[in-house]
Design a protein that fits this description.
2 domains; Rossmann fold; four-stranded antiparallel beta sheet; Argininosuccinate synthetase, chain A, domain 2; globular; alpha/beta; 11 strands; about 290 residues
C-alpha cells in the first residue's frame, strides 16, 4: 500500500510522542518514509504504565534504530497534575481525567525537547476520532505557538489492519492485549478499550487489572488512614512518597472492589461513547480530600 503525505519535510527534524504502542511506533516510521523527515526524535515518558510497557517501547525503538529520549515522569505527574486534579475535584462526567492529564504532560515534554534540539515540528499518533488529538495539539501550540503539529494516523486515515501490516515489514508484531480490549494505563487511571465498546450490555471482566468485582471483595472492611495537607494527601497509612501513595491506594482499593467506572461520555467532536475505567486511588482520594 502506497501512502502519500499531505506535505513533505525533507531534511527537517521532528519530535514524536512515543509510547511503544502500535500507533506511535508506526508514526516514527512514517515520518521518515512518507513525510521525508531526516531525523525523528522519539520522546518516551514513564507515567506509571508499568515496566513491561517501557521495556517493549525500548525494544521496538532498537529494532527501528531509534534512541528515545526518556523521562521518568511519575513524580512530576503526581505532584503537578494528579495533586491539582484532587484539589479541583477533577472529574469529567465521572472520569478522573487520568489519560487526559498524561497527554498534556507528554505534549509538554515534546515541546521541551523540540526547543532543545531546534525542531520546528512535533508529531503524535492520535486518530481523528477521540479527544487525545486535541489534548496533544492544544498543549503544544499553547506552549509554543510557532511549532507545527503533524498527525500521521489521522492525516493518512490509517486503519488498524493497515498499521499492523506496515509494522510487520519491520519485524514488529502487535503484542497480546491485556484482556479483550486493551487500553491506556497510567498510575491515576486505566482506560479500557478507549471507545471500542459499542453497546450498553457487554461486560469485560478480563480487562480489569487492578480491581476485583464488588461481589468478590472481602467481607471485612479495610480501614485506610489518609492525612491531607493543603488539599492533597501527604500520608496514606505509613506511606509518604507521593508516587507510592497512589500505587498503594490502587492496590488496596482494587483488592476491595473500589474504583470501577462505567459511563456514557461526551467527546469533543460530538460523539457519545461508553467508556470503561478503573481508578481505585482516584476514586478514594477524590471522595475523601479536604
Amino acid at each position: 500500500m502506497e501512502l502519500k503525505a499531505p506535505a513533505r519535510y525533507d531534511g527537517e527534524t521532528v519530535v514524536s510522542a512515543y509510547s511503544g504502542g502500535l500507533d506511535s511506533t508506526l508514526v516514527t516510521i512514517l515520518l521518515k518514509e512518507v513525510y521525508g523527515f531526516k531525523e525523528v526524535i522519539p520522546v518516551l515518558l514513564d507515567v506509571g504504565q508499568g515496566e513491561e510497557e517501557i521495556q517493549v517501547a525500548f525494544e521496538r525503538a532498537e529494532k527501528l534504530n531509534l534512541k528515545p529520549i526518556f523521562f521518568d515522569a511519575k513524580e512530576e505527574f503526581v505532584k503537578e497534575y494528579v495533586f491539582r486534579c484532587i484539589k479541583a475535584n477533577g472529574s469529567y462526567e465521572g472520569y478522573p481525567i487520568g489519560t487526559s492529564m498524561s497527554r498534556v504532560l507528554i505534549a509538554s515534554k515534546c515541546v521541551e525537547v523540540a526547543k532543545k534540539y531546534g525542531a520546528k515540528y512535533i508529531a503524535h499518533g492520535c486518530t481523528g476520532k477521540g479527544n487525545d488529538q486535541f489534548r496533544m495539539e492544544i498543549t503544544a501550540k499553547y506552549l509554543d505557538p510557532e511549532v507545527s503539529v503533524i498527525a500521521p494516523v489521522r492525516e493518512l486515515n490509517l486503519t488498524r489492519a493497515v498499521e499492523e501490516e506496515y509494522l510487520r515489514k519491520y519485524g514488529i508484531t502487535p503484542k497480546p492485549r491485556k484482556g479483550k480490549l486493551g487500553g491506556d494505563i497510567n498510575l491515576w487511571s486505566h482506560s479500557i478499550g478507549s471507545g471500542q465498546v459499542e453497546d450498553l450490555e457487554s461486560q469485560y471482566p478480563e480487562d480489569y487489572i487492578w480491581t476485583v468485582p464488588p461481589e468478590e471483595a472481602p467481607e471485612k472492611p479495610r480501614e485506610v488512614v489518609i492525612e491531607f495537607k493543603s488539599g492533597v494527601p501527604v500520608r496514606v497509612d505509613d506511606v509518604k512518597d507521593p508516587v507510592e501513595m497512589i500505587l498503594y491506594l490502587n492496590r488496596v482499593g482494587g483488592e476491595n472492589g473500589v474504583g470501577r467506572i462505567d459511563i456514557l461520555e461526551d467527546g469533543i467532536i460530538g460523539l457519545k461513547s461508553r467508556e470503561l475505567y478503573e481508578a481505585p486511588a482516584a476514586t478514594i482520594l477524590l471522595k475523601t480530600h479536604l
